[in-house]
Specification:
By secondary structure, the protein is an all-alpha fold. The chain has 5 helices and no strands. The longest helix has 34 residues. The two termini are 35 Å apart.
């Protein structure tokens, strides 16, 4: 049985949260379609609930992808000559991921700070925009931490190239 470490618990927590968001969005969509077909009614705010939950699910899965370095990659050169290209391209990819994550955090955190105290709400559900943007900024901050961990892993563990 695999040992549960702090990193594993965090990873599983993010993935469980993402899965719950995806299931919620799916449930709302299926419920809305079923209600429309059966009683010609809809779930108020269904589109907004689905959009927000699916978006949050994607955000919650990002830190795990960055930390485990399981995001989409193309291994064209490293497949041709693994000894020559795997380490340098792995480092470039990990560094690019960390830079991209940092830029995302910077942009969204700046937006969240600007929106603090704003009375703006979402159109259908009336959820406060400053709270939603802050949640996005926090999820992206977790992604940045994970991207930096992925970069650290790449620096420490991919040195065995020829």
């Amino acid at each position: 049985m695999p040992q549960l470490t702090f990193k594993t618990l965090i990873s599983h927590g993010f993935l469980a949260g993402a899965g719950a968001c995806f299931l919620f969005g799916t449930g709302v969509t299926v419920g809305d379609v079923a209600l429309r077909a059966i009683v010609n009614k809809n779930i108020p705010g269904a589109i907004e609930m689905t959009s927000l939950s699916i978006g949050l699910g994607a955000l919650l899965s990002m830190p795990v992808c960055y930390a485990k370095r399981t995001h989409v990659t193309a291994k064209l050169l490293s497949e041709l000559s693994p000894n020559r290209f795997t380490y340098p391209l792995g480092l470039v990819g990990a560094l690019a991921s960390a830079v991209f994550a940092a830029i995302l955090v910077w942009i969204v955190a700046e937006n969240a700070i600007e929106k603090l105290g704003s009375p703006e709400t979402t159109a259908d559900l009336g959820l406060p925009i400053p709270v939603l943007i802050t949640i996005v900024a926090l999820a992206l901050a977790a992604s940045l931490v994970a991207a930096l961990a992925g970069l650290r892993f790449a620096l420490r563990n991919e040195r065995d190239w020829g």
